[in-house]
Write a structure and sequence with these properties.
Helices cover 50% and strands 15% of the residues. It contains eleven helices and eight strands. It has helices at 16-29, 48-58, 74-81, 99-108, 120-131, 139-149, 162-165, 168-178, 183-190, 194-208, 213-222, and strands at 7-12, 39-45, 62-65, 68-69, 72-73, 89-94, 112-115, 136-137. The longest helix has 15 residues, at 194-208. The N and C termini lie far apart (49 Å).
């Protein structure tokens, strides 16, 4: 649907009460009388599967996407939908303002990221802006994206912003892990406990969204950390 007739929005959030509130806010603040293109909610989903099915069926203009869902996350919705729905624009709407969440969903293809503290009028404005092709971020979050994707001496390339999310110690652990060291050997090498090694590995897995040490080893090798 064109902006002349309205911007069609699909809501993705696992809390039904929150979806109801967002729908009411968009209906109130996004009417034609409020100025600009009217914003109309055409569907909603509470899980990755519901989101993927609904978006493919309804083909909305903009998807308001929560980052954390029971059966996956917003990045997973993007990975499954974007290849065959490239015209759909995604705007992350989440309670999380963690850098790793912001970077993950932007890397997956979202055009913006705002937190749930946003007002109804501000959300409508954000929807209209991303639909028009403009990237939109809550003020503090824009810095995460700029830092992660900027070309700086020693920084990751544009295609690998996850490296900027790892602490120096996490990189040390990852480098040794990729070289085939056991947890006990890493602990000895870095003068830390095995429990601390496990904690660092868990953090790296979460930040990189990988599943095991073998995937981490390949990931590290691809980025020349080994």
């Amino acid at each position: 649907m064109t902006a002349e007739h309205g911007i069609r929005v699909f809501l993705v959030d696992d809390h039904a009460l929150f979806r109801t509130g967002v729908r009411a806010e968009l209906d109130r603040a996004g009417s034609a009388e409020a100025g600009g293109s009217p914003v109309v909610v055409v569907g909603e989903g509470g899980s990755v599967e519901e989101a993927v099915t609904g978006i493919r069926h309804l083909r909305p203009d903009v998807v308001l996407l929560d980052v954390h869902l029971p059966d996956g996350g917003g990045a997973e919705v993007l990975r499954r939908v974007r290849p065959d729905q490239s015209e759909v624009v995604f705007l992350a709407l989440s309670v999380s303002d963690a850098a790793e969440d912001v970077i993950a969903v932007i890397r997956a293809g979202a055009r913006g990221y705002v937190t749930k503290t946003i007002s109804g009028a501000e959300l409508v404005d954000a929807v209209r802006r991303v639909h028009a092709g403009e990237p939109v971020f809550s003020p503090r979050l824009a810095g995460f994206v700029l830092d992660a994707f900027a070309h700086r001496p020693g920084a990751a390339s544009v295609g690998n912003p996850e490296l900027d999310l790892l602490t120096p110690r996490e990189r040390d652990v990852l480098r040794l892990l990729a070289r085939g060291y056991a947890y006990k050997e890493i602990a000895t090498e870095l003068f830390i406990s095995i429990k601390t090694v496990e904690t660092h590995v868990s953090s790296v897995l979460r930040k990189t969204q990988l599943s095991n040490r073998y995937e981490l080893s390949r990931w590290a090798s691809d980025r020349r950390l080994v």
